[in-house]
RNA sequence: GCGCCUGUAGCUCAGUGGAUAGAGCGUCUGCCUCCGGAGCAGAAGGUCGGGGGUUCGAGUCCCUUCAGGCGCACCA
C-alpha cells in the first residue's frame, strides 16, 4: 500500500462519513487527497495524518471525536492493520506487513524508473547556471553551482519537466579587453594593466597562446591585443567545458553574449521593450522603466555614448529564452548578484510575461573555505579542477549538493572535503556496495529470487521485523521526495533522504540476515529479504544518479 | 541609510504549522566464531540569537530587536 492509496482511502472515509450524515461538512471541504506523513516516532505507526485536527473546526466537532469516526471507517480497509487516535486527534496508521512489503517487488520490477513522477510534466524550463566569465578557471564557488545545478536538472527531469540546461558565456564587453590585455602582458613580460587579471593561470594561458601564435610578439599592439583576447578566450572556454564534462556536468546550450550583439538582438530587444511602453529616452541615454515593476531605480539600456549596457544584453537574452519556447526560466545566481532579482523580474514583466510564473531566480550563497572568501582576484583560489583531482568528483559533488543553495557554506577544507569516511557520500555509497556484496554472496549460496516454476519467491508477510517496516516505509517515500525536491528546487532533499535510507538499511542489515548461516538451509524468508535488498540497491542507485554521483558495486 | 540571505548541540549543518528538535564530525562506553566494522547499539551535549504576537499547536508564520554575510553603476 502506497501513501497515495492510503490518502485516497482516507478521502473515501471522509466522503462516506459526510454521505451518511455522521459528519457535517460541506462537500467542497473534503480534500481530494489527505496529507499523510511518516511520524517521527516509530511507535506512532507507519503513517500519520492530522486531517481530523484540520477539519474539526469546520465540522463543529471535537478533533478526537472526528478522528475516532475516521479510525473506525479506515480500520476496515484491506492492508490496514491498525488505526489509533493519539494526542489531540492524530490518526496513527499501521499497515499489514504484507501490504507494505509488496513495495519491494514493485521497486524491483520498476527499476531505474522508480522515483520518476509526472509532478512537473506540464513544465518546459530553461535552467541557466554557473555562467562564469570565460576569463579564468572555475573555482569552488562555481563548483557549488555546478553540483547543484546539474542535480537540479536531473531532478526536474525525473519529475517530468522538459529541461534545457544552459550556460551564458559573457564574452562581450570591456572585461574581455582587460582579459586580452592581461594575457598579452604575460606574453610580453610587461606589467599587467590596471584592473586586469593577475592570477598565475593567465601566464599559462599566455604560454598556450604564444605556442599557437608565435607571431604575436611582432604584431602591432591592437592586433596583438585582439589575438591574445580571442585566442585566450578560446583556450579558457574550452578548458571550462572540459573540466565540467569531467565533473559530469553537461550543458545543452552554450549561449554567447557576443552573439546577441552581433545579431542585432540587443537593439531589437530595446525596440520590443519600447513597443511595450516601458522605455524612456533621458539625459542622452535609453532607460528601461523598471520602477514600474518594483525595482528601486530605472536601469540604463543604452548609454549616452551609444554603447549598450550589460543589462541590455540581459534583456535580449531573456527575450531569446522566451522566443526559443521556454515559459519557465530559472536562473541560479550567486549571492553577489542578488541585486539583479528586481531588474530581471522587471525585464520579464516589461516583456509582457508574468514574473511570478515565467521567471524564477534562485540565489545561492557563497562558499568560503575556513573563513577565506574566494574571489578571482584574491590569491587563494581553489579551482574546480584541483578539487576534483584532490578528493574526487563524487565527494565534491555530494558534499556541495547536500546543502540548500541559500545557506552560506563554510567548508572546513581539509576536514570536510577530504576523501575519508567522515564524508556522508561514502556512507551512502557504502550502503550501495554492501547491497551488491549481499547479492554476490546470495548467488554463491544459491539463494534464488524465483521458484523453479518461475514464480517469485517473495512473501512480503515475512518482512515483519521493525527494521523492515522502517526500511520499507523509507523506500515508499522516495518518489515524493524527488517530486518535492523538484517542486521546491531543493536537490539537497534527495541527498538527505539517501542518508536516512542508508541508515535504515545498515540497521536492518545488522538485525536481519539476508543469507542463512552456513549450516542452515535456504528458506522463504531469505529469498524474500533478497528482494528487499534488491529494492534498496535500486533506490540508492536511482537517488545517487539524481545527484550525479556514482553507485559503486565495490569500494 | 535601503534591500536580500543567514543565526538550531563544541564544529559543519538538516528540519516546506504537528507529538519527546535530528544527523555527521569531535568526546565517552560496548559489538567482528558466520551475509563488507567505510557498519551497528548506547552515553554525554540545546534559553532553536533576544523579545512580543497569530492558534488547539511555532525552530517553522507576523512584528520588533541584536549579530554575521552580501548587494545597492550610463562596471561586467
Automatic annotation (TrEMBL):
Every copy of the DALR anticodon binding domain together lies at 428-555
Q: Which residues form the Arginyl tRNA synthetase N-terminal domain?
A: 4-95
Which keywords belong to this entry?
Aminoacyl-tRNA synthetase, ATP-binding, Cytoplasm, Ligase, Nucleotide-binding, Protein biosynthesis
Reactions this protein catalyses: tRNA(Arg) + L-arginine + ATP = L-arginyl-tRNA(Arg) + AMP + diphosphate
- Listed SUPFAM superfamilies: Anticodon-binding domain of a subclass of class I aminoacyl-tRNA synthetases, Arginyl-tRNA synthetase (ArgRS), N-terminal 'additional' domain, Nucleotidylyl transferase
Q: What class of enzyme is it?
A: ligase
Keyword Ubl conjugation applies: no
Relate the assembly described in the record.
Answer: Monomer.
What family does the database annotate?
Belongs to the class-I aminoacyl-tRNA synthetase family.
Do you know which Pfam families this protein is assigned to?
Arg_tRNA_synt_N (PF03485), DALR_1 (PF05746), tRNA-synt_1d (PF00750)
Protein name per the record: Arginine--tRNA ligase
Motif mapping: 'HIGH' region: 132-142
- Return the EC number: 6.1.1.19
User: Any idea where this protein resides?
Assistant: Cytoplasm
Identify the domain of life.
Bacteria
Say yes or no: keyword Ligase present.
Answer: yes
Q: Please give the Gene Ontology molecular function terms for this protein.
A: arginine-tRNA ligase activity
InterPro entries linked to this entry: aa-tRNA-synth_I_CS, Arg-tRNA-ligase, Arg-tRNA-synth_N, Arg-tRNA-synth_N_sf, ArgRS_core, DALR_anticod-bd, Rossmann-like_a/b/a_fold, tRNAsynth_Ia_anticodon-bd
Amino acid at each position: 500500500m502506497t501513501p497515495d492509496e492510503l490518502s485516497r482511502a482516507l478521502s473515501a472515509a471522509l466522503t462516506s462519513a459526510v454521505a451518511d450524515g455522521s459528519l457535517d461538512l460541506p462537500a467542497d471541504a473534503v480534500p481530494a487527497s489527505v496529507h499523510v506523513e511518516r511520524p517521527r516516532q516509530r511507535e506512532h505507526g507507519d503513517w500519520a495524518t492530522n486531517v481530523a485536527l484540520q477539519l474539526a473546526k469546520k465540522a463543529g466537532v471535537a478533533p478526537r471525536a472526528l478522528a475516532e469516526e475516521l479510525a473506525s471507517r479506515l480500520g476496515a480497509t484491506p492492508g490496514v492493520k491498525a488505526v489509533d487516535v493519539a494526542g489531540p486527534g492524530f490518526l496513527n496508521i499501521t499497515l499489514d506487513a504484507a501490504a507494505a512489503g509488496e513495495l519491494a517487488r514493485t521497486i524491483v520490477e520498476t527499476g531505474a524508473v522508480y522515483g520518476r513522477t509526472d509532478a512537473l510534466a506540464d513544465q518546459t524550463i530553461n535552467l541557466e547556471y554557473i555562467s562564469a566569465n570565460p576569463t579564468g578557471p572555475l573555482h569552488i564557488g562555481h563548483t557549488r553551482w555546478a553540483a547543484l545545478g546539474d542535480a537540479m536538472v536531473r531532478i526536474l527531469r525525473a519529475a517530468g519537466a522538459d529541461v534545457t540546461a544552459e550556460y551564458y558565456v559573457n564574452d562581450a564587453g570591456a572585461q574581455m579587453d582587460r582579459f586580452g590585455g592581461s594575457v598579452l602582458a604575460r606574453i610580453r613580460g610587461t606589467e599587467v594593466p590596471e584592473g586586469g587579471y593577475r592570477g598565475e593561470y593567465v601566464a599559462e594561458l599566455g604560454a598556450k597562446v604564444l605556442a599557437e601564435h608565435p607571431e604575436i610578439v611582432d604584431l602591432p599592439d591592437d592586433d596583438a591585443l585582439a589575438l591574445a583576447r580571442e585566442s585566450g578566450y578560446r583556450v579558457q572556454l574550452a578548458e571550462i567545458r572540459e573540466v565540467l564534462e569531467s565533473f559530469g556536468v553537461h550543458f545543452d546550450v552554450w549561449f554567447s553574449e557576443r552573439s546577441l550583439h552581433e545579431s542585432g538582438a540587443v537593439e531589437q530587444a530595446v525596440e520590443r521593450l519600447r513597443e511595450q511602453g516601458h522605455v524612456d529616452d533621458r539625459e542622452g541615454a535609453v532607460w528601461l522603466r523598471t520602477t514600474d515593476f518594483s525595482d528601486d531605480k530605472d536601469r540604463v539600456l543604452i548609454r549616452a555614448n551609444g554603447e549598450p549596457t550589460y543589462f541590455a544584453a540581459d534583456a535580449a537574452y531573456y527575450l531569446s529564452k522566451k522566443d526559443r519556447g521556454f515559459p519557465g526560466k530559472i536562473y541560479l545566481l550567486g549571492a553577489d548578484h542578488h541585486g539583479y532579482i528586481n531588474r530581471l523580474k522587471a525585464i520579464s514583466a516589461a516583456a509582457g510575461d508574468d514574473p511570478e510564473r515565467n521567471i524564477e531566480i534562485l540565489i545561492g550563497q557563497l562558499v568560503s573555505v575556513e573563513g577565506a572568501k574566494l574571489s578571482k582576484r584574491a590569491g587563494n583560489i581553489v579551482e574546480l579542477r584541483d578539487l576534483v583531482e584532490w578528493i574526487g568528483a563524487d565527494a565534491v559533488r555530494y558534499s556541495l549538493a547536500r546543502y540548500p543553495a541559500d545557506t552560506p557554506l563554510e567548508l572546513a577544507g581539509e576536514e570536510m572535503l577530504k576523501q575519508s569516511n567522515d564524508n556522508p557520500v561514502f556512507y551512502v555509497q557504502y550502503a550501495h556496495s554492501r547491497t551488491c556484496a549481499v547479492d554476490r554472496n546470495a548467488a554463491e549460496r544459491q539463494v534464488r529470487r524465483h521458484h523453479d516454476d518461475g514464480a517469485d519467491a517473495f512473501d512480503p508477510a515475512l518482512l515483519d521485523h521493525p527494521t523492515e517496516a522502517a526500511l520499507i516505509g523509507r523506500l515508499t517515500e522516495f518518489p515524493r521526495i524527488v517530486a518535492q525536491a523538484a517542486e521546491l528546487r531543493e536537490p539537497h532533499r534527495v541527498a538527505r533522504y539517501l542518508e536516512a535510507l542508508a541508515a535504515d538499511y545498515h540497521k536492518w542489515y545488522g538485525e536481519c540476515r539476508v543469507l542463512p548461516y552456513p549450516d542452515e538451509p535456504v528458506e522463504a524468508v531469505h529469498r524474500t529479504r533478497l528482494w528487499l535488498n534488491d529494492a534498496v540497491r535500486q533506490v540508492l542507485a536511482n537517488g545517487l544518479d539524481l545527484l550525479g554521483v556514482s553507485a559503486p558495486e565495490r569500494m
